């Protein structure tokens, strides 16, 4: 058995042990291999160095796919001793770092058309010995920076506009303080060297889908701290390590076989320790397979239900997509005045589908998230709390097959969940409150179908997912990125996303349609406990998903559902927490084209609840519980059904 195969077996054993319990945020499982993964290279791989006199030197590695012997470098420029760190970039670009910032040079056809041009006052801290290994450039000319807090950022300078791109500097991941060195080895491929034992870990980020295709996968158990003079790459998953004695060792990793077909090949025996900087041309080799997952088209969905929440300022917020793909937002500043709703079509010329989600940043700004018909997840945020204006749409990509759901962790971070075309669950989370989201990260689990449901619980977010077999499964996500094992809620089939209520003590009850028109429910008796058997709430042939809410007036669980007759019906518990239900009543006398959404809120008369639906011409109706009647009924007979007052919200403008 070879050393490499032993190393690979140990790596997989560790990964499988981690997968058997939980999947933490900072330990990734091996990514999906590409069947035809290969690398291709230019005839020679340029390697650059800076000597103590400040000369910029170049030598070319012959046969870079397998690694050829490096000749003695020759000078191509002088005056580079002012930089503490020099990195080669795409297309013979060079980035030099001084204490006062970052400089760019470019060599074209043997001449310098850009020479020592300052492009940023930042990055100066990376020029010294303490920070020089915390910056790298990949084949896509992305400048990756690992700061001292463990946050990983990617920057890109656009030569055509002479500006940094709009996504430059965003935090893509965190928790990378485990590494004392990072090196970009292809577009989005970043290796990290463990600061504690020198093991080498590989991560791969796809900027198109904004997915971490893999994170922190150990690929070498050797101690890479032997390369005290640095590690660089010429692209294509290659690595060149420089030892203290000046030897240069060459490696090439193959993602398809998860191993090194070229391992620790000596391409220079000595002399490279004398250079102050060594950097390979990151675009000499490249991985040929396209790692970007296809973005499944999301067809328009007719009569998807409306989202409704109350903001921290007290306003009622509504959002829906109509049958032609417009995303419409409504704001009712005074929750007692349903005639005062202001509608805005916020989609512009983009088309969206399915039910959007409404959430709120910790600073009170409302966030709309929805699925574009392209398959990407898009998000738009208020410019200011209680303001009328919105920031521009942000394309969060994802290439997800099903619409997202947004939840908030107990610590106040917004997190989004969605299911990909292969049935795998994914999430992306804020790095801290009120800022952008980091990249999409895969969660454990497979065989999921449809939209996830998510509710905040004591120590995380409880997820519910429909499986491809039609049953319901649940798992708990924590802010640190761990996920408990998925647990099934029995053999009962369900149709669509369930409705979930959380009782005091964080016990959960779920409601769903069984696909045969029956509203069914199951509940926990203890926090984090198993769910009991499914019960049918008989008496209604339901069309679509039910929507449940705990009435703030009575403490009873109330359910609304659209019947096969096209009208909204209501039932509720006879006694708090009993799981016994009143007879269904027809709660509205105008036909509903959508499933209803029940929601609790507070108006000038105190806490209450209501439900919202839309008619066949996409006009919004809100039916409010008559608060006085509900209070008196609660003290006399819990079997008395609530009474509702219906209202037609003003139509959105046609412009």
Automatic annotation (TrEMBL):
Residues 312-539 form the PLL-like beta propeller domain. InterPro entries: PLL-like_beta-prop, Tachylectin2, Tachylectin2_sf, TAT_signal. Residues 49-275 form the Tachylectin domain. Keywords: Signal. It comes from the Bacteria. Pfam families: DUF8189, Tachylectin. Residues 631-641 have a biased composition (Low complexity). Residues 1-35 form the signal peptide. This is Uncharacterized protein. It comes from Streptomyces microflavus (Streptomyces lipmanii).
